[in-house]
Write a structure and sequence with these properties.
The structure is a single chain. This protein has 140 residues and is mainly beta. It has a single domain, classed as PUA domain-like (Roll). The protein is 12% helix and 39% strand. The protein is built from two helices and seven strands; from the N terminus they run E-H-E-E-E-H-E-E-E. Strands 1, 2, 3, 4, 5, 6 and 7 form a seven-stranded mixed beta sheet that branches.
Length: 140
């Protein structure tokens, strides 16, 4: 679902999850609700998200520099821990719409993690590092 403003995204997210998204966070963990709201931002070259297949997108864990860690406490560990996170949601921030030059958002909905893999990929400084990519499956 395409949304034309942060307010529209925030309202949609609240309707679906009971929580508002955090604007500056890629993995928004809500401890009380046991929810993670994941954001992918177009053209972020230090991550390797692939959202072309809405039913089975690939989402990169948190960590902009050096090797990513599965046990990173604020974002990665809660997302991967099924006792801490019962529901996962995904949305995409489109940098700029080509026609209107405005940012827009796409709400993808609820997912589950079906697998994870790792690979070498440049960090935000261009240095090679290990990243982890989650394969997600859309829940119906």
């Amino acid at each position: 679902m395409e949304l034309n403003s942060w307010k529209d995204l925030s309202d949609k997210c609240f309707d679906e999850t009971g929580c508002r998204p955090y604007s500056g966070v890629g993995i928004g963990y809500r401890k009380k609700e046991k929810i993670c709201i994941c954001r992918s931002v177009d053209d972020t070259n230090y991550y390797d998200d692939d959202l072309k297949n809405i039913d089975n997108p690939e989402y990169t864990l948190f960590g902009q520099e050096a090797d990513q860690s599965l046990s990173e406490k604020r974002f990665n560990e809660p997302l991967l821990n099924r006792d801490k996170t019962k529901r996962i949601f995904l949305y995409r921030k489109v940098r700029k719409d080509k026609n209107t030059k405005k940012e827009k958002y796409i709400w993808y909905g609820e997912y589950e993690i079906i697998s994870q893999s790792s690979k070498q990929h440049p960090d935000k400084n261009g240095n090679m590092r290990k990243i982890y990519i989650l394969s997600l499956l859309k829940k119906s």
